[in-house]
Write a structure and sequence with these properties.
single chain, 326 residues, two-stranded antiparallel ribbon, 13 helices
Amino acid sequence: MLTYIIRRILWSIPVVLLIIFVTFSMARSLPGGPFDRVGDRSLPDSVRENLEAKYNLDKPFMQQFTTYVADVLKGDLGPSFTARGRSVNDIIGQTLPISAQLGLLSILLGAAIGIPAGIFAALNRNTWIDYSSSVVSVIGLSIPNIVLAPLLIFVFGVHLDWFPTARWAVNYRELAFGLFPPLSELGDFFLHAALPVITLGTGIAASFSRLTRGSLLQTIREDYIRTARAKGLRRNMVIVRHALRNSLIPVVTIFGPLFAGLITGTFVVERFFAIPGMGEYFINSVGNRDYPVVLGTTLIYSVILIGANLFVDIAYAWIDPRIRYD
């Protein structure tokens, strides 16, 4: 297993370099530049040329790319073109913990609801429990975040006034270990997090429920399950110790890209709830041609995605002892 992990990490290096190169090329192929306009005014050519020279944008493409890669290897993601006086490291350090909190809570909520719902639906196939779970799952998958977010805001934030409708309760500087809010502010934190987490967690729960149900129904028909039942093992023990573990493989499979996408920010939800996360900065940086922010956020997303997929592969071997990487 250790050899496999080392090999995967080494193979990840050229993958990350390729992602940087493609993103670097695509960002600079967009029409317009970061210093063509400031607000509604066009900059004089002399000012624009001086700014491009300051940030090495007047250099040949390959020289810009190699300089950027060299800076990345030093841990420097460069300065932001639009957020003057701030570096990309500062922006990501401020926004990534907030997006990570939102993503982790959404995944936990989705797993806590979806996996048990899928298990109960599979164990009560063709009953009202199964039909109800299927209907709720279809509804959860059908309603997009762009519809669910304003609906929750109107009902629970405006009409009932149960939850705040905007912002994030805890500043990133107050987080313990860069992620956990202080105990004294947990109540306020969960009040602010409730609506955006429910918005994201609903679709995740529906996906987990459908996958768990389908996989568990297939698993309980396998020969080794029949053999375990024939030996006299109780049904609940067979399900928990044998069937459930193998049926979670499809759920774990989608966990990698899902984890990376949610951890690095979901633009729609962050925009609706005015959450200062990483997703909103990324979208704004594309429109502003802020190349360092685009590259930095893409790089962080790629590294998290590669790490999450590696974790999924390792989890396969733990879930199913038949899987070996040696």
